[in-house]
Amino acid sequence: MKTRIVWLALVLTVSGCGDRGATDVADGQLTADVETNSESSNNVAETPPRDIGRLGADRGLISRTDAATPGYVFYNPLNSDTTYLVDLDGQVVHTWTSELGTSGGIYLLDDGTLLRAGVDAEAPVFGGGGQGGWFQKLDWNGEVFWEFHFANENFRPHHDFALKPNGNILAIAWEAKTVDEVVALGRNPEEIPAAGMWPDWIVELRPVGTNDAEIVWQWHLWDHVIQDFDETRDNYDVVVDHPELLDINVGHLPEPITEEEFEQQRAIGMAPSNATMNNRGSDLYHVNAINYHPELQLIALSLPGINEILVIDNSTTTEEAAGHSGGRWGKGGDILYRWGNPANYRRGQEEDQRLGGQHDVSWVTGDSPQDVRLLVYNNNVPGAEPPQSAVYELALPLTETGFELEENAAFGPAEPAWQYTTDDPMDFFSPFISGAQRLPNGNTLVTEGASGRFFEVDRDGNVLWNYMDPFSGDMKNADGTTPQPVGPFIHGTFRSTHVPADHPALAGKNLQPLDPQPPFYQPPAPAD
Questions:
Q1: Closest CA to 117 of 483, 383, 488, 461
Q2: Is residue 256 part of a domain?
Q3: Is the entire prediction scored with pTM above 0.85?
Q4: 8-state DSSP, 179
Q5: In the Cβ-directed half-sphere of 503, how many Cα atoms lie within 13 Å?
Q6: Does residue 123 form part of some domain?
Q7: What are phi and psi of 260, to 5 degrees?
């Protein structure tokens, strides 16, 4: 039985069904370079005839127009110890290096500090993609002047984090829950992994000194669940009447695999450290993005495991965040808004699902400051065949008192206010990671994460700048796994970020191209 290498990444995401847009990207059709497996998972569509990682593509700057937004782009390939800052000519002008692999989130602060989340390669228990455990601040010269370790057998941060204007960090973390604890909250025992579950915890950290931080606020998803599976258990109620709560029985365990198949995934780098047969599915929700709206004090979260984005209130106290009242929006820590899969709260059908394994939800402003919107990278557009990605901009039904929701209806909008995708599905697709950043002029920087492709589009979908990451790395944990399970996607990048030319962090800095330029990455030759 041959392993379908390129397509294995889809096992990590949830594919589904929906509409596609109509904007073209100037890229040629790609062809497959791997053999397919005749035995495929029920959750995975047929293998598309293309190289999802674009391993055969040219690398570096592909195209640049005069309309490209002035500035720079920074990013860190997931297998690399280096964060690169490149100009619009594709030239590297600055780098930072770290001994810690990246878990995803990286931010350039106004004073030139690079704030990043790093991998604790020795942290126990948690074996999902996006593993973290460290937070670091590096100065412009790459010297670490603050770092904080935050992981043990009970919790571990992962993926993204958000930075508040006061300098506090909003982090995503897993919490370990035993099988008995999960059963007590009313989940179907047949849908619980042997290792229990890892629901998500949002924790606000205030950096202290050079190696510490204080928890100043926290929110637990576990405090806001409902179920109608077992009336003898906690949280039993009518799910459709409570869209503010998460049905604990939403989401299913992954399709069973054999030990041999599991070892094959590990061998090609698709299994993270600590991954076992017993904890497959423990990371059910897999929150992979967090973004903060400072004026509204709202937090947006992406839960690709159930194909939804959620909004919660950060104006509450920690006590209020554990309950159902209080805070600016009066709902405590309950879900204020959700979009992408209304069947999760029984107000839609399978055909109403709009998101599939999405990443990088972020707040953007529409036509006026009162026009509040969200931008999200939709990795697997439901119904697209072959699979295709899209970027959606959602105009939210937000009033001064909260999010509008009609009785027994799903949250709006019915359709995105704007979307980017391609006429030819072959031109734009990444089954995992990826992102989209709205620029001040209304353009969007898109990260096609699996291939390491970053490109800028305008509102009409014209590609103004197109760059293919030429770098990677060969970082390894002590157990031989890579910092993140990117497998054959050697240029895989969690997200790229545009930095305006007038950004305060760049003031007075030498931004001439490095001489010599870092060499393009050449993967090791296969063993005989």
A1: 483
A2: yes
A3: yes
A4: H
A5: 23
A6: yes
A7: -65, -45
